[in-house]
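Hi everyone,

Forwarding the result from last night's run.
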Amino acid sequence: MTIDWMGQGEVALRLLVASALGGLIGLERELHGHPAGTRTHLLVSLGAAIFTVLSMQGFAGDVVDPTRIAAQIVSGIGFLGAGAIIRSGTSVRGLTTAASLWATASVGLALGAAQYAIGIVGTAIIVLSLGPLRRLVRSRQRASREQTRLRLELTRLEALGEIARRLEASGADIATLSTRDLQNGRYEIDAQLRGDGVGREELVASLAALPDVRLVETGDAQE
């Protein structure tokens, strides 16, 4: 039996690249303290690549459909991903890690089939979604939770309609609003505004220009 060293070298390259890309994805998970880290993701990618190569080359001459082994990888990884999911009361952790394991298996499948571009681009997208995209989403969530306290004194409650329109134009959402009669034709409005970077100086100037507004104060809201 003659060994095709060129072909074997190509297979070895596929497995090495699959291992490197899987390890790169796992490194991101490990740096953020997740139990399924570098070694787990490396082995998932490597195993998927090996099974793919075997299904394409090792059983290519058999009557059995050679893609069946690769097809079983997708469902098999689901059991491994389920082990990364932890439920504590009403909260669930590990869904992203489970998804990263599943996606890493697809990278191994791509490399096992010699689809280098698919594997490399797929890895880049996975790492992007786990790292920079996650930080971007969290920063947007923090911004949306930021609240500003607004206190007004009015001479007419009917001015609330125009105030609400100006708040909406500034990009602020009214989280809470309360009114209090100060007697002698004065009313106090206390509101908490939620929004991404509400411009306080512009807001104060806009509201102070209304004829029925006697006082405008802003500050950080107590959550």
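DSSP finds eight helices and six strands in the chain.

Cheers,
N.
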